[in-house]
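Researcher: I'm preparing a figure for a lab meeting and need a structural model of a single chain. I don't have an experimental structure, so a prediction will have to do for now. The sequence is pasted below. Please return the structure as tokens so I can convert it later.
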Amino acid sequence: MHPIFQVAMNPSYLPSPKTEKMESQTWVPTEEGRSWVPDQNANESYQDCKRVLQLNGRSDLSGGPIAMLRLVQGMLEEPYQHLVVCPENSEGILEDLQKLPNAQIQTMELRRVAPSLIWKLYKLLQNIPIDLIHCHGKAAGLYGRLLGHWLGIPVLHQFHGLHYRHYFPGFKGSYLKLERFLARWSEKIICVSESECAEAEALGLFQPGQGLVIPNGVNGSQFQPNALQKQSLREDWKIPQNAWVLLAITRSSVQKDLEKTLGVHRLIRRNRPDCVLVLAGVKPEELQRLLRRKVPCDSSHVICAPPEHRMERLINVADCYLSTSRWEGFSIGLIEALAMKLPAVISRVTGNLDFIGLESEGVFLVPQGNDHAYAKRIERILDSDIRGRNARTTVLERYSQETIHQRFSEVYRELLSETHKLPEDNVQTRNQGGISTVAAL
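Model: Understood. Here is the structure written out token by token.
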């Protein structure tokens, strides 16, 4: 058995928590870029706030890190100080986090499975007392729930997609068993879409009443179509103004099925040779690796967009949004594109199922893996007046960023209130793990 599974099943593998508290330390940027604390004067208003540990195994510009970033940004007026622990990534969210007076940052590579990381996190929390742990994704969820169980800190775990389908059968079963076990050390478990929540419940990943649905949100005032930006970006990228541009906010991964995206683009170019595919989230070297593997691709009409911290500028370049994912949590890129009045052709999979019924507003779900189904639907959009209809109003009503932040604030207040009680089996589990007292929640 891997050591990390031994730790998960038996916290006695960990050293006992120290009773003494080390003097609080002021963090500053180091040469390695591993830690950051806001300016002391700017941070003064947060000195007496509750402290929330935000754990994330990623810090790139993908959905989970962006959702965490926007959560912290949206809580500037709330009484919380956030300690964000995530990997170092010069092109990711760290640049934006460093601008926030309510956030401290500690970089740590959490995606690898190693008991030493639990010890590092434990030592970190000896210097900075924490009132609530909010885990984002499965790697962070492992470490965060172990820490919460060990130290008696309430834990909020958030899925950003259920990533298990591509595992080998034996490992898939072990992972799901571990998630079910760790659910006992979570006060609440958040899913980002109704369809993700239904799948998680069917898999037994949380107990009745433990799961919540809080989707990702979009800022309607920020994400609006802008004809001047569209023209300017097309000029910069040498895209003809009358070209048909597909946008895929994606990654080179099993989940996103980038090969399928490239295949759909090739099919469309048979009838529309001016069709250009813009890939956001895919590096040029990643595309080159696919080409060396002989993956069919009309590379002369494919653009790998540079990393963009303000996605509304990039989305303006497009005429249609395309997603060929094998599964989703809840795509931030999709709701941003819809808020900017783009039609969308997306796969009929978990996460995207929440958009069923919006065909009249330009959102079309097709069977995942069927290149021709994607291409035909996109060609119908080209040949019809569907571009005059859009889902902006519906998306902003359902997924307003302000409303999403309010829901998180309510959950935080509930978990941190003195009247909040742990489920009975959680208290028993923690006591059996060697913790005789439970922190006031």
